[in-house]
Amino acid sequence: MKHIPRKRFGQNFLTDELVLSNITRVINPRPGQTMVEIGPGLAAMTRQLLDGLTQLHVVELDRDLVARLKKNFSPEKLVIHEGDALQFDFASIPVPEGQKLRVVGNLPYNISSPLLFHLAEIAPLVEDQHFMLQKEVVERMVAEPGSKTYGRLSVMLQVRYHMELMFIVPPEAFDPPPRVESAIVRMIPKPGALPCDIKKLEEVVTKAFSQRRKVVRNCVAGLLSEADLIACGVDPQLRPETIALEAYVAMANLLSSRQV
């Protein structure tokens, strides 16, 4: 029976064999690695990943798709975690000593940002992440200071990851075709991430980018003074989208140092 994609789950199934092969080549799954796929769907990517892996974990919310997966794969090859990826504890997946978890998936566009932040909490446990996302989101993730797309998402992810847009995927590669272009992004956790109070960074960045057209002094008024900005090496007259990651980290750490 043909599975009808469900809008509430943001289901767009990748069907283009060439694109699937290209993604698998970029991921390069190898025997003995511990990998989890988020949203395996109709298992088009799952099958290709299993060609290179000994075993694969998957997280799937749709009960009908879970039933299909159980019917088509042995539990020794495919370990199925039924539930919402936003609530799933990825750190619970057992990984052999000396290894780290690899994460892949065609992420539902309607939950992509919160899911990325959920995964960021376990970044030290992860070797790499490869995701299919809306191209616009990936462009924001990898944007550099001075770019129109540089913002909260850029800063909050770049503090933890090196990221690279690998290639673009057209709408016709999916069933049903989404209304936007997609892109594959590679995310590698930074081994020597900048020491930072993430909650304070979130506070600073959210306030800074809430009024992009204003200078940063006005954006963070009430949180940081002009003298504070200067102490962090930031020109108070700059606009938020021109300020480097390291400067935002410095602002967050200054706030954190004032906590009793």
UniProtKB/TrEMBL annotation:
Alphabetic keyword roster: Cytoplasm, Methyltransferase, RNA-binding, rRNA processing, S-adenosyl-L-methionine, Transferase
Localisation per UniProt entry: Cytoplasm
SUPFAM superfamilies attached to this UniProt entry: S-adenosyl-L-methionine-dependent methyltransferases (SSF53335)
Catalytic activity, reaction form: adenosine(1518)/adenosine(1519) in 16S rRNA + 4 S-adenosyl-L-methionine = N(6)-dimethyladenosine(1518)/N(6)-dimethyladenosine(1519) in 16S rRNA + 4 S-adenosyl-L-homocysteine + 4 H(+)
Domain Ribosomal RNA adenine methylase transferase N-terminal: 19-191
Gene3D superfamilies in UniProt: Ribosomal RNA adenine dimethylase-like, domain 2 (1.10.8.100), Vaccinia Virus protein VP39 (3.40.50.150)
SMART domains to which the protein is assigned, alphabetical: rADc
Top class in the EC scheme: transferase
EC number: 2.1.1.182
GO cellular component, one term: cytosol
A Pfam family reported for this protein in Swiss-Prot or TrEMBL: RrnaAD
InterPro entries: KsgA/Erm, rRNA_Ade_diMease-like_C, rRNA_Ade_Mease_Trfase_CS, rRNA_Ade_methylase_Trfase_N, rRNA_adenine_dimethylase, SAM-dependent_MTases_sf
Record bears the keyword RNA-binding: yes
Domain of life: Bacteria
Residues reported to bind S-adenosyl-L-methionine: 12, 14, 39, 60, 84, 106
A GO MF term: RNA binding
Record's function text: Specifically dimethylates two adjacent adenosines (A1518 and A1519) in the loop of a conserved hairpin near the 3'-end of 16S rRNA in the 30S particle. May play a critical role in biogenesis of 30S subunits.
Cross-referenced PANTHER family: DIMETHYLADENOSINE TRANSFERASE, DIMETHYLADENOSINE TRANSFERASE-RELATED
Recorded family membership: Belongs to the class I-like SAM-binding methyltransferase superfamily. rRNA adenine N(6)-methyltransferase family. RsmA subfamily.
Name listed for the protein in its UniProt record: Ribosomal RNA small subunit methyltransferase A
Organism per entry: Undibacterium pigrum
Gene: rsmA
